[in-house]
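Ticket #4471: structure output looks truncated?

Reporter: J.K.
Steps to reproduce: submitted the chain below (455 residues) through the standard prediction queue, then opened the result file.
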Amino acid sequence: ALAFTTKAQEWSEPVTVFEGGTNYDPDFAIDSNGALHVVWTHKIAENNWKIYYSESTDQGSTWSEPYDVVRDLVENQMLRAPKIAVGSNNEIFITYDVHPYSQVIKVYMQIFNGNEWSNPMLVSRDMSSAYYSRLIVDNEGVLHIFWYNSILSMFQYRTFYNQAFSNISQPYNNQGTIFLSHVRIDKNSKIHCFGVHRSVGGSNSYTIYFTKYDQEWSRIDSVCDPYWSSKAMAINQNNEPCFLWVSRTNNIDTTRYTKLINNQWGTFTLTPKISSEQAIIVEKNGTEHIVQNEKYGSGYVQKHYILKDTNVYEYVIDESRYPSDNKLLISDSTMYLLYVRPLESNVYECDLYMKTFPVENLSGIAFHVQNNKQLVCKLFPNPTRQFFSLELISETTSLIDIYIYNVFGQLVYQTQFHQLQENKLFDFGKQPVGLYKMLIKSGELTTTQTFLIMR
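Returned output as attached by the reporter:
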């Protein structure tokens, strides 16, 4: 049955990336050689924040001394929200917000070529209240930069290539407020965007999705409403986006998971608990990993969910004080979790940590193998509305049993038949929209299929 199952702890012990003082806003990237690059903000005084950078060339076991990226920090100037990306030649791009005292906020960028850092470059020009930048590098080595302009209530965009910036654009003028939360790019260099939209004169905000491909911006697609908070985004092995978002009813938060399959959205509940600090990433084999913080008694715990073969496994990573700023990346067979955690003795001081988790990160068809025999089935269409066809690719002389479970592990459909000679059509009935697991058994052989019911 589809169920939440507690698994054994497989995370490594935490490695300290940096300790001492107050540290926030971490972000990290992995270059083509497997080196890890981390950037974060470090508080010097109430109105003085620096941008620190560190790298690891041994899979996060040891870290270089932190480098103060912006050397001309002046008094009463805060540098916040750094973002990092790796270029096609392993150059490091870092953007950050500059908050001069009693002046407008601007976005700057610096580049590290492996030997030295460039001088700060103004990204947002002289436009006021520009902040919350996002970075993506495409397959051609073009850096795409996004940020939010609070005066215009709109995100802005430009590129950087061959040491030159493009013009600044606003892709969705006169369409209300658009706040861009997350940006991801797929293997075809299609940019996927996840954010929040409020129409002109409207009072409600909605979680939205749109793309940029071959210089064209798509229409805005409303993913889910009513909106409470968009949290995290990933792109799966099929170049399709999946989102985490939180809705609130009667002061109870519910973490929801939404996935785009064949141009249709499917949503199910991950957990009906107060949660925050979500991160999501997908392996090449389709296994999905989610890390978030959840309310537990008077405190919080850091939880890890694995979505694999329609099963959802969960376990606690950290039961200490409230961890935050969870970030996930995968390289080869290792998943990295970057986060900050307050000290037990002083909640206002936060150190920077990293943990690792072994993953397969392999591409290919997943099937169950027993006694050197394979049971492989093809289910279509997926998503479906009520009817589905099943093609049994493997040969078996045993009776075939089908069991279908909903996301709560409840058996909602069951049937039995003899070996298929051709595609067989089944009437699943009018089941609620959502994610379902099909368990197919033939003698000692079993396999599973995951599918969505849409309307």
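Triage note (M.O.): checked the attachment and the full token line is present. The chain is about 0% helix and 60% strand.
Status: closed, working as intended.
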